[in-house]
Amino acid sequence: MIKFAAKEDIAEIMDFIENHWKKGHILARNREFFEYLYITDFDRVNFAISRNNENKINGVIGYIPYDKDHTIISLALWKALSSQDSFVGMELFEFLTTKLNTKLVATVGVNIETSGEIYLFFDYEIGKMNHYFRLNKKDNYEIALVLDNTIDSVEFKNTNVKELKSVDEIPDNFKFDENAILKSKSYLKRRYFNHPVFKYNLYLFDDDLIAITRLQEYNHAKCLRLVDILGDYNKIYHITNFFDEYMHQNDIEYIDCYNTGIKEKEFKKAGFIEIQKSKNIIPEYFAPFEKRNIDICYSSSKHGIILFKGDGDMDRPN
Known about the structure:
By secondary structure, the chain is of the alpha+beta class. 22% of the residues lie in helices and 27% in strands. The chain is built from eight helices and 15 strands.
């Protein structure tokens, strides 16, 4: 039996995550964070669950909505027990997307090996995100492994930059790219301004581009994660001078960004290098820390979608 979860199912879902997803996972041990992530309105739990003949959970699929009607979503945690009916995973997927009458399903951090065939069956686009970075000029790097310290020069752009302290400071006429997910002010407020664990900084450039960053520290060293960009992507190079100075003033090793859907030439114009074209290592995992490059895969029902690491639940504490 498959149904939408209720609040009384949360404890059992958390146990399922602990026993069948990953022991010690934050969603298995921190109910407050679980509810922040999956209860977005009216005490509605954004999970579908499957129960076997013994009324035990044998599969779950969670999602994060971008709109009030839950028609634009990102899948966030999808697991079916292999010892059960092998179709439970697909049945959960079909139940969720059909019952919600989804217009767009776009997910960052998918396991293509386990779910790739299902995505392809429904004609989803799947692939690896590009990983871009830009170094700060330093003598030593503690987080990154830098074998090539090239820092490309960029066109100087004098821009008007404002740090946004409230979602109400976003211009009412702010325009999103047609290939990006439309993110309402209520979504942005919840996702970035009111996050219970992470501190995000949002910067508005000339009223038509917003860069969203998170400072990452490790072993007394720092890097800057560019987790989301909103607006006119032809103007990404407008951010470079500001963040170069920001990194210099705050002794930050580098800034990096995972993305799909934006042409590489836009990041190259901004002085960013794609990791596959470099000898360097720009770590992704910090809890625990691993000094290696990591691929992040995505899926989308819309081909040509623009996604960043901040979409869905990929950028969250562990």
